[in-house]
Amino acid sequence: MMMSGLAIHNIMMRICCHTATATITSSRRHLFSKSSSNIQSASGWGNLKRFPSLRPPPPTLLPHCFSSASSLSSITDASSAATTSTPATPALSEEDVMMGYVFGKKKATQVAHSLWKRVVQKGDVVIDATCGNGHDTLALVNLVADNTIHGGRVYAMDIQKVSLETTSLLLDQSLTPDQRKHVELLLMCHSKMEEVVPSDVAVRLVVFNLGYLPGGQKALITRSETTLLALEAAKRVLAPGGLISIVVYVGHPGGREEFEMVQAFASELPVQNWVCTKLQMLNRPSAPMIILLYRRW
Ligand SMILES: C[S@@+](CC[C@H](N)C(=O)[O-])C[C@H]1O[C@@H](n2cnc3c(N)ncnc32)[C@H](O)[C@@H]1O
Question: What SUPFAM superfamilies does this protein map onto (predicted)?
């Protein structure tokens, strides 16, 4: 069951797509914003350090880690353990999660969370472009927040107030007050992300979890037109060595068109600057897909 990081990388590359030409611009407006109790000041989070894009994976665990009992929470257990007396479940390695996905025991969102760990370090600036119920935001805070290092910032946005409220509650329950300060919740369309991220900040990861809010109104879904604008913006703010991570769903009205738009966007990124990968369940046509856009160093 052991598999090296390189082997996983190779598998992913075989499943994937590339091509064409485009230019990356970085004209970004300097604008800080919003007044709400959930929103922190964005000042003072510049000077992002550049890190190697791939770090050595943590030690591989035993095959029992594929049990369906180990859920998305395993991603965050190590940090949340600091706030509770419950013994922490050992965090799974990226290889374990990828193998769990291949053997039908892990979900697309868990694979995405796991891959983020290869790109993001404490002190990084990241964007959750669709915060929804806050699970992705929480995982991101646990990756970047560290009070011993200057920086570490999550910009989490959604067009629904209820999403920000749910996310805020989850963060309050799961994080220490110091960790909580690393998140800025923003009621806005992700196509405007450049208006809130300071222009001198290089973003390490932009996360999209498309579709509708689980348990919410299915009419309030992400839409191809604004998702495309947001992907263009994400491309501009992303640092070299950074990743755009997209989980895309095709089972709802408009989902297939949105997926095709994302796939076309990825396929047109220039191969000399980008590595674009798709993970797809071939015999589950409506299963979510993971699309990863890695900006080369
Ligand atoms: C699948 S949910 C996200 C799940 C979330 N990441 C989580 O961990 O719970 C998709 C979210 O995208 C939001 N959304 C839709 N259009 C948006 C837009 N233009 N900008 C930002 N968020 C949007 C929806 O309101 C919904 O909450």
Answer: S-adenosyl-L-methionine-dependent methyltransferases
Taking only the tens place, the pLDDT of each residue in 143-192 is: 999 877 678 999 999 999 999 999 999 999 999 999 999 999 999 999 99
Tokens (6 digits) for 86: 């419950």
Q: How far is the CA of 189 from the centre of ligand 1 (A)?
A: 9
Nearest atom within ligand 1 for CA of residue 135: 8
pTM given for the model: 0.76
Q: Kindly give, in sequence order, each residue whose CB lies less than 8 Å from that of residue 232, ignoring residues fewer than 6 positions away.
A: none
Query: Would you list the domain boundaries of the chain?
Result: 20-42+108-295
Structure tokens at 188: 């806005």
Measured in Å, residue 222 CA sits from the centre of ligand 1 at: 7
State whether CATH 3.40.50.720 applies to domain 20-42+108-295. Answer: no
